[in-house]
Backbone:
């Protein structure tokens, strides 16, 4: 990268990342994409757990597997990897010194897990009162479940998402289903980033850091959005509806002559246009379907009638006709179709970065688009310990002899 080019909105911010797997690394990758210098602390020899979560593996220029898993690659670009043995007293000293130089620390150890190393919030705020210390756990820093380990799948169940996801009771294949992506982890990473940025804004006014406490369970419940509100306001426990919407009709998938499509009607005008495209304009003035509350009430009748019509043409034919009439409609793409979509390609959603092991690594671009401080794809996800020497020399101003002594003592 051109050294004169801006590194992004967070250029100059130092982030010490003690997290692993997905929620924490997702947050730190977002901060790195925005220009922060993120140092990822990993265990010597093994590193982040997700390095071993393959196949698939990244291939080098010769097509040979490198041992870098696709899972690890999705959440660790633009970072620098440093190996430190946290169980060694000298390793604890190194991390503590790095924390004194950091603006932000992100960790996802069990509650109290870092206290034994003298790296907990209370200890580190004494040496760096400006530090923003972000803790990500399954259940938060207090409460009866605080000591439990929390995993995305577990939290999707405990937090209510799986009670809403899956086919409706009484239909074939009914039962709880988790999301196909670890959404609780991803959303926690996003909330953590927002929390860190808010804490940094407050530090600008007060000069003081603070702890940011993120619990996967809290985030999952917060992300239930209208479904949680439906229960809290209406007092009725929402049920699984398959791909249907609890508050809007028609807003679901429909069969076509060659597969399925999604129709997402958001208002009464769109519904009337939809009926015209379907060749059933009379439905738009039918008292049962005239307004959305009426369509919700008569959901089963309307959906059955629409399904009989949508089977008459192909997905592509329906999508073109619906879009021309201003009715939101689209296909259900697999990932090959997603990345082949001309709009996705025009938006440069796929990016490639040169990897230090040879060859390129394909990644999904950061979706935030800035007019003045664009995201820079500076470094591919690092190999284990790739930047140990550089960071110790840069952040801590150690000399080569100091670094070699730590290496000889098996600290690095």
Residues:
């Amino acid at each position: 990268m051109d050294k004169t080019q801006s590194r992004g909105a967070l250029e100059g911010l130092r982030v010490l990342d003690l997290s692993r797997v997905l929620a924490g690394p997702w947050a730190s990758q977002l901060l790195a994409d925005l220009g922060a210098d993120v140092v990822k602390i990993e265990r010597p020899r093994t590193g982040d757990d997700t390095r071993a979560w393959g196949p698939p593996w990244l291939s080098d220029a010769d097509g040979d597997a490198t041992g870098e898993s696709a899972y690890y690659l999705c959440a660790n670009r633009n970072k620098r990897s440093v190996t430190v043995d946290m169980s060694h007293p000298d390793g604890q000293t190194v991390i503590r010194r790095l924390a004194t130089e950091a603006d932000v620390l992100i960790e996802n150890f069990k509650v109290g897990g870092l206290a034994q190393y003298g790296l907990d919030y209370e200890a580190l705020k004494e040496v760096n009162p400006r530090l923003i210390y972000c803790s990500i756990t399954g259940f938060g820093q207090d409460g009866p479940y605080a000591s439990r380990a929390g995993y995305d799948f577990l939290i999707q169940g405990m937090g209510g998402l799986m009670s809403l996801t899956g086919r409706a009771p009484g239909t074939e294949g009914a039962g709880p289903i988790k999301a196909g992506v670890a959404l609780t982890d991803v959303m926690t990473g996003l909330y953590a980033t927002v929390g860190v940025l808010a804490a940094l804004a407050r530090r600008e006014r007060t000069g003081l850091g603070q702890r940011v406490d993120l619990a996967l369970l809290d985030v999952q419940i917060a992300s239930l959005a209208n479904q949680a509100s439906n229960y809290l306001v209406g007092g009725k426990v929402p049920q699984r509806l398959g791909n249907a919407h609890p508050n809007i009709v028609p807003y679901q998938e429909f069969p076509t002559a060659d597969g399925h499509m999604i129709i997402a009607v958001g208002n009464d005008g769109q519904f009337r246009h939809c009926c015209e495209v379907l060749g059933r304009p009379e439905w738009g003035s039918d008292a049962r379907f005239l307004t959305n509350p009426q369509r919700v009430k008569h959901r089963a009748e309307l959906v059955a009638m629409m399904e009989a019509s949508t089977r008459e043409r192909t997905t592509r034919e329906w999508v073109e006709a619906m879009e021309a009439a201003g009715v939101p409609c689209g296909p259900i793409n697999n990932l090959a179709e997603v990345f082949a979509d001309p709009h996705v390609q025009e938006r440069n959603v796929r990016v490639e970065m040169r990897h230090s092991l040879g060859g390129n690594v394909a990644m999904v671009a950061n979706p935030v688009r800035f007019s003045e401080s664009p995201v820079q794809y500076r470094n591919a996800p690092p190999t284990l310990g790739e930047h140990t020497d550089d960071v110790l020399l840069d952040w801590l101003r150690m000399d080569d002899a100091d670094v070699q002594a730590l290496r000889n003592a098996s600290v690095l």
About this structure: The chain has two domains: 14-222+348-408, 251-335. The domain at 251-335 is CATH 3.30.1540.10 (formyl-coa transferase, domain 3). The chain has a mean pLDDT of 95. The radius of gyration is 25 Å.
